[in-house]
Design goal:
Shape: globular
Radius of gyration: 15 Å
Oligomer: single chain
Number of strands: 6
Strand content: over 45%
Helix content: 25-40%
Strand order of the largest sheet: 2-1-6-5-4-3
Number of helices: 2
């Protein structure tokens, strides 16, 4: 049980760090945002799909400048049985986003992350990303 608890705690810490990195990069260094994605990643932005790191990069660079305010982050480790033993987690983020020339809008975003080895150790890479604006009901 202690091992499961440690995994959940690590998952939560990783999700918060990753979310801060992602939105800081989106707001201030968008030209390197695609480095957070795997080569074959998928992004679904308000129902519009983009596949592959290059296409995702082109899409993000086409957006106006943004300011993101994270309001909530939640994360769940993915059971090893479902990801062939690859360390993975599901991260859900919600907050406010403001694009230049537009008013602030509520959004939610879900990431499926996987751990990948590089020269400095494990890093989280996005396998799947789903972004959605929240629309107010009247």
């Amino acid at each position: 049980m202690a091992d499961k608890r440690a995994k959940v705690d690590l998952c939560g810490e990783s999700a918060v760090k990753f979310s801060k990195l992602f939105y800081e990069t989106m707001d201030k260094k968008r030209h390197v945002l695609s480095n957070l994605y795997t080569d074959t990643a998928t992004l679904v932005w308000n129902g519009n799909p983009y596949t592959g790191k290059e296409n995702i990069s082109k899409f993000y660079e086409s957006l106006p400048l943004s300011e993101c305010d994270i309001r909530a982050v939640d994360a769940q480790p993915i059971a090893d049985d479902f990801v062939q033993g690859q360390t993975s987690l599901l991260v859900s983020v919600s907050g406010m986003i403001k694009f230049t020339g537009r008013s602030s809008t509520l959004y939610s975003e879900s990431f499926l992350l996987t751990a990948q080895q590089n020269e400095s150790g494990n890093v989280w890479k996005i396998v799947s990303d789903c972004f959605r604006f929240h629309e107010t009901l009247s």
